[in-house]
Write a structure and sequence with these properties.
2 copies of one chain form a homodimer. Chain A is α+β, with helices and mostly antiparallel strands. The first copy, chain A, has 4 helices and 14 strands. In chain A, the strands form 3 sheets. Chain A has a 7-stranded antiparallel sheet.
């Protein structure tokens, strides 16, 4: 055991210092079949075989109701040129607005699941719900990845700096600040 | 719906393109009280109130047995100057070696939990196990964050490029490649 210069931090400070967090959009559909896109800063891969991912959704979010209904989710990584649209999807509620249209995104049919894929994404994981776990004020949903598509090359995709700004980073470590304007 | 230029990808290609993944070390202790550090590339925050994090551990890993035994975990973010040590902790098994010593890390007592904190870390989340969910070949463990400490400033911390290299990124988006040498 040795000395340390660590000082106590608040949860808010700590989440800021742990930035950037990988930021993706999740596509679901509501009971009327309307596609909805939600911003997800809290997610991870969670199984190699079968391929699985976990996403954390606030209990009160409209998007959670849609996910519970459709039981499918397409996790879309977004490139830097669509940072503003990605930000809109993460900051507006889909309850009364068509966020995808507002954000300038279009959709294409997915390969396996019924909910569509964002046409402009750089990487899309089609998931079918396989489990869930209540965690405080959120629920962790685990999805089995049933199809994957991606754009050519290794485009930069988005990370959030504590949900205040976005930064774009490529799989080879190139970075650019992609500060979105409020819509 | 519109046209797309997305093409099908393998899981391995997709995990590569989704890089960089935030890379942290988790400290546990085994039945003999020996601290052990594991590399974690699959983790996320999963509740704001109470503060909670989820980490995904392979079922066969030695570190998982230690976590099941001690029921505590300190999630440590590591700065770029310790990339080599962080890499060692993620690539060697702790079954027969003292990974922390081999990696050049020392430990300090934690504030709340019994397992120690890596003295050289830039951010430490002390967690008590609060839930788990089986997900394919891994288990998602959810921990309640009971104390947090961090270093001064906003040091760069590590992200993995598909577990082949590490890159260091600060909370304000500055980046450097921190390619570790094999120990």
């Amino acid at each position: 055991m040795s000395e340390t210069e660590l000082r106590e931090l608040s949860w808010d400070e700590a989440i800021t210092l742990a930035s950037p967090h990988p930021y993706v959009l999740g596509v679901t559909a509501d009971a009327a079949g309307k596609p909805n896109a939600l911003g997800l800063g809290w997610w991870t891969i969670c199984s190699w075989e079968p391929p699985m991912m976990a996403v954390s959704l606030g209990k009160r979010r409209y998007s959670r109701q849609a996910l519970e209904y459709c039981r499918e989710l397409v996790v879309c990584l977004i490139g830097e040129e669509h940072a503003r649209g990605a930000w809109i999807c993460g900051t507006k509620s889909g309850r009364k607005t068509d966020k995808l249209a507002l954000a300038g995104f279009t959709t294409v049919p997915s390969l396996v699941v019924k909910v569509p894929t964002i046409a402009e994404c750089v990487l899309a994981f089609e998931c079918q719900l396989a489990g869930e776990l209540e965690t405080g004020d959120h629920i962790l949903y685990v999805g089995k990845v049933v199809a994957i598509r991606g754009a050519a090359g290794s485009p930069k995709h988005l990370y959030s700096l504590h949900y205040r700004k976005l930064v774009a980073i490529s799989a080879t470590g190139e970075v650019s600040l992609a500060v979105p304007h409020e819509g």
